[in-house]
Write a structure and sequence with these properties.
By secondary structure, this protein is α/β, with parallel strands linked by helices. About 30% of the residues lie in helices and about 20% in strands. Strand 4, helix 4 and strand 5 (about 105-110) form a beta-alpha-beta unit.
Length: about 350
């Protein structure tokens, strides 16, 4: 059975930079608070009208394709991970197919937030292992800046997130011990509401309200999808119980990394480069400590980009590779945790 390997990596971050100081124009915050709690110094925001989650993804994809030595027409399947799609539906995958003038190949959107890229990578990996497809484009992209409460009310969430995109091209290899060794995916829906954007949605308060929907009239029910009241109450913005997420993240990251190591008969000291999802520098530092890894074996760039959710791992992977920190034969570990909760890991022999 073939394995898949990463034949090309690409990234795109929009030009506009917002420092922590810049955020003070919109909300009551400080550079000191943001840096101390998250390590973030600045983030990039997409141009409001000319850039979308898809257009950024396309730019990252084009770079990954060029580096893989492939044209878009040679791609057999697209997997696109995002929580900030251009449209509620259809997904961004079909827009990539259109933008890159690809053949009428399958396009799948993955909605697993911070773990989205690793879920997407895992899906693509399975298709290559079974021989169904040869060349797969995997993209993670986010335009968070369009969906954040930039007032003081939303500051615990909005200072963390940034825009950007990353992509990889997967191809099959028969080379022994090379490529994606394994992927590991998990979820625990018990905590779904601790990090979520509820509206617009079809939930009709089903999960939170004691009264059945039958008690409401048609107009009220219609308003449950999207209403002025929701907007007035900022219910169309992401909600996060930051401390609960933090606690679970520092437990689940090491667990899922160790699971990947054990599945391959390896130990933490075998890792040449760990790329954690860039959720918070303090989380990455705790994982590093728990895994007993030296500074040169953990890659972080959240200081410059903030948390770019599904894009954070491919952007970091791409930068680490460009900086010569990932070389042939290296053991690369990718790991993520976030909304859902979902968490995941992958080990790759580069
Ligand atoms: O990738 C998705 C997964 N997400 C994560 O992994 C995030 C995990 N959680 C975190 O990273 C942290 O919980 C945060 C960085 C989000 C928040 O840090 P925290 O230490 O948990 O802060 P907090 O929400 O408990 O707030 C502490 C104080 C509050 O003030 P009072 O009530 O103590 O007076 C907040 O109002 O800090 C205040 N605060 C802020 N102050 C200045 C919250 N946000 C801000 C802000 N600037 N941006």
């Amino acid at each position: 059975m073939p394995r898949s390997f990463i034949a090309g990596v690409g990234r795109y971050v929009p030009e506009q930079v917002l420092t922590n100081e810049d955020l003070k124009r919109y909300m009551d915050t400080s550079d000191e608070w943001i840096q101390e709690r998250t390590g973030i110094r600045e983030r990039h925001f997409a141009d409001r009208t000319s850039e979308t989650t898809t257009t950024m993804g396309v730019k990252a994809a084009q770079m990954a394709l060029d580096r893989a030595g492939l044209t878009a027409q040679e791609i057999d399947f697209i997997v696109f991970a995002t929580l900030s799609p251009d449209y509620y539906f259809p997904g961004c995958g079909v827009l990539v197919q259109r933008e890159l003038k690809m053949r009428e190949v399958g396009a799948l959107d993955v909605r697993n937030q911070c773990s989205g890229f690793l879920y997407a990578l895992s899906v693509a990996d399975q298709f290559i292992k079974t021989g169904m497809y040869r060349n797969i484009l995997v993209i993670g992209s986010e335009k968070h800046s369009f969906g954040l409460d930039m007032s003081t009310r939303g500051r615990n969430v909005s200072v963390i997130f940034g825009d950007g995109a990353g992509a990889v091209v997967l191809k099959p290899t028969e080379a022994d011990g090379h490529g994606i060794l394994s992927t590991h995916l998990h979820s625990d829906g018990e905590s779904a509401e601790l990090l979520a954007m509820f509206n617009p949605g079809t939930h009709a308060n089903h999960w939170t309200r004691e009264n059945p929907v039958a008690d409401f009239d048609e107009a009220e029910i219609a308003g449950m999808f999207m209403s002025h009241e929701m907007i007035d109450k900022a219910q169309n913005f992401p909600f996060m119980d930051g401390q609960a997420v933090f606690k679970k993240a520092v437990a689940k990251f090491p667990e899922v990394i160790n699971e990947a190591l054990a599945a391959n008969g390896l130990v933490a000291s075998d890792i040449d480069m760990l790329i954690p999802h860039q959720a918070n520098l303090r989380i990455s530092q705790m994982i590093q400590k728990l895994m007993r890894l030296p500074d040169n074996k953990v890659y972080n760039n959240i200081q410059r980009y903030g948390n770019t959710t599904a894009a954070s791992i491919p952007i970091a992977l791409c930068e680490a590779w460009e900086e010569g920190k990932i070389n042939s034969g290296n053991l690369v570990c990718l790991a993520a945790f976030g909304s859902g909760f979902t968490w995941a890991s992958s080990l790759i022999r580069w």
